[in-house]
Amino acid sequence: MVCGMRAPVHVVERVPPETVAFDVLTRDELNSAAAATTLVVPLGSTEQHAHHLPTRTDAACVSAIAHRSARLAAGHVPVLVAPTLPFGCAHHHLPFGGTLSLTTSTYVNLLCDLVGGAVREGYRSVVLLNGHGGNDSAIRLAVDRIVYEERLDVHIAAASYWVLADDVLRAHGFVSPGHAGHFETSLMLALEPDLVHLNRRATDPTECTPLGRPDIPGASIRRSGLWEASDGRTDDAAKATAELGAVLVDEIVAVVAQFLVQFHRSTPAGGSDVARAFISSSPAEG
Fold this sequence. Notes:
Elements: H1 27-33, E1 38-43, H2 57-73, E2 79-81, H3 104-120, E3 125-130, H4 136-149, E4 155-160, H5 161-164, H6 166-171, H7 182-191, H8 242-265, H9 273-281
Parallel strand pairs: 1-2, 1-3, 3-4
């Protein structure tokens, strides 16, 4: 220390209730919030989405849903959203090009390392919010390993947003979200319309294959060569609209926000004195 100068006083920062983005906060703000906060990690992918959608589609959708849901939930419980992981398990898209993929083993290791680091920093409540179907089985492997094998002191949930919002999808006639079709195109028209090129979409519905629909409900079925035989989409995007996308996003966000509140309150973080103070100082929803 320079003679005559006093060391700076450390001030513990409190995270404003309306702030949910991890990467805009300082270490002091994050450190003071960690123990009482649910950390949401959005999981995307970078992969082909037919001729008309950008490769960031999965990452864009889950990022928007995570941040909007967290802002809604933050009126009730402390929630932070980590930067979206833009890579996932997408080897089935490699034959088409426009895809960056991780193997399942690498992806599981990555998730375990990320969560392990968060736990070391004091987080005890974590949600892996998935936005890519190829990640679904891997995130379940990761949470099992984190809790049962690595024995980390954490309450952790792994969920794909469309599974949480299954009733929303079915109410609008979607059996599954599919890939680069009606559902995803509608979401992207609402979220990032400048990146949607409807004039480039395939117009022959006979080229589509029902890749997102299992023959036997409850079974995980994989067929060698099935994706290669398709044109990289599961259904036609002819009826996709920004209006439908906006409705879907709003309804999905409401469901995911409710899940975040319920999950947080079920964890030790939700019962801490810091959490109660945070909740009591947060604005109630109108």
